[in-house]
Amino acid sequence: MTETVENIRLTADIVATTPDGLVLLIERGWPPHKGAWALPGGWVDAGETSRAAAVRELAEETGLRVVEGDLRQVGTFDQPDRDPRGRFVTVAYAVTVPTGTAVQAGDDATSARWWPVDSLPAQLAFDHADILAAAATA
After folding, report:
1. How many C-alpha atoms does 67 have within 13 Å on its Cβ side?
2. Which residue, 24, 60, 106, 116, shows the most beta carbons closer than 10 Å to its own?
3. DSSP state of 124
4. Residue 126: which pLDDT band, with cuts at 50, 70 and 90?
5. pTM of this prediction?
6. Is residue 48 part of a domain?
7. Which domain CATH number covers 94?
């Protein structure tokens, strides 16, 4: 029997919502899915927890700063084909912020904006529609 070794990378994504039913999405500025809307998120750096990475990525990509203790874990998403670059496992978190919270695109985001949960873009990057669905029931 031949053993296959797979390089698995860890990421963190964050579902930021407001009490009045908006969700924060970024427009991706880089492949894969360049130009598509996605949840803020990215790599977990060496020595960093996924929760800390979610907080950092949210701030880097949208300017929105939250504290780790306010995050609630939505779940772990590990479908082998969820990212065209290879095997990525993400831990997703959710946070609720006040209505009217300002955001500004940064890092690898071309745009950052609040979307009504019931009027999202038809196609989201990666498996982010699944993450949003899980967050809605968590």
Report:
1. 2
2. 24
3. B
4. very high
5. 0.94
6. yes
7. 3.90.79.10
φ/ψ (deg, to 5) at 97:
-125, 160
By DSSP bridging, strand 41-43 and strand 72-77 are: unpaired
Domain count, the chain: 1
Residues 33-91 have pLDDT tens digits of 999 999 999 999 999 999 999 999 999 999 999 999 999 999 999 999 999 999 999 99
Q: Mapping DSSP to helix (H, G, I), strand (E, B) and coil, where does residue 77 land?
A: strand
Query: CB under 8 Å to 101, separation ≥6 — which residues?
Result: 18, 64
What does the pLDDT read at residue 3? 80
Tokens, residue 77: 């998403």
Nearest to 33 by CA among 45, 21, 41, 23: 41
130, amino acid identity: D
How far apart, in whole angstroms, are the C-alpha atoms of residue 35 and residue 64? 21
Provide the pLDDT for residue 2: 74
Average pLDDT of the chain, as a whole number = 95
On the 0-12 / 13-18 / 19+ scale of CB atoms within 10 A, 13 is buried
